[in-house]
Amino acid sequence: xxxxxxxxxxxxxxxxxxxxxxxxxxxxxxxxxxxxxxxxxxxxxxxxxxxxxxxxxxxxxxxxxxxxxxxxxxxxxxxxxxxxxxxxxxxxxxxxxxxxxxxxxxxxxxxxxxxxxxxxxxxxxxxxxxxxxxxxxxxxxxxxxxxxxxxxxxxxxxxxxxxxxxxxxxxxxxxxxxxxxxxxxxxxxxxxxxxxxxxxxxxxxxxxxxxxxxxxxxxxxxxxxxxxxxxxxxxxxxxxxx
Length: 242
What we know:
Blueprint: H1 2-9, H2 12-24, H3 30-39, H4 48-59, H5 64-70, H6 72-78, H7 99-109, H8 115-123, H9 128-131, E1 133-135, E2 138-140, H10 144-158, H11 163-174, H12 184-194, H13 196-211, H14 219-241
Helix pairs in contact: 1-3, 2-4, 2-5, 5-7, 7-8, 7-13, 8-11, 8-13, 10-11, 12-13, 13-14
């Protein structure tokens, strides 16, 4: 097959095609799709700036959900730390998706085009499979933020993220599931810890993450997120008027 030979000569063409599909919303032909799946393994061990650039652009496309779900084998070829998430059932009233499906929906739920937020969402739960415990109430993932942060560090190194970006991403991944009271005092504490830009990103991550949970569990947490965003906006207005 001609496409397979082309991918053998230039494996990054696979990512360029996925980026195009994500940006345009156009699906590949059956022949090309088969060739992509057949050739996905060629991307294993390839990292660095070219992969990072294509991945970030792919994640910011409007068609990212279909690409992440249909080509999970390609995504796992460049981020093998995601493989345990494929098909991993969460057995939890907050979740209707497997861990990987939840990650894909969370990425797609963010309507912006900030690569830092998108990559945070892609990696925010990669530690869940190693944290899984089960009791009479179902499945739980204690300390999965810390576990995801640890695994993400290797991913970000392999993809040559700049030191500043890596610090930003690891901070957001590590505290993505933090419970923050919607009070001026709590917001002031988090602003002192993170700064306004990083805190705004954290709230965007939280909102997209919550939207990927079961509908019946979202409302109160989305209300909390909205209240935190309003408190952040009020704090910023106050700072400009001082």
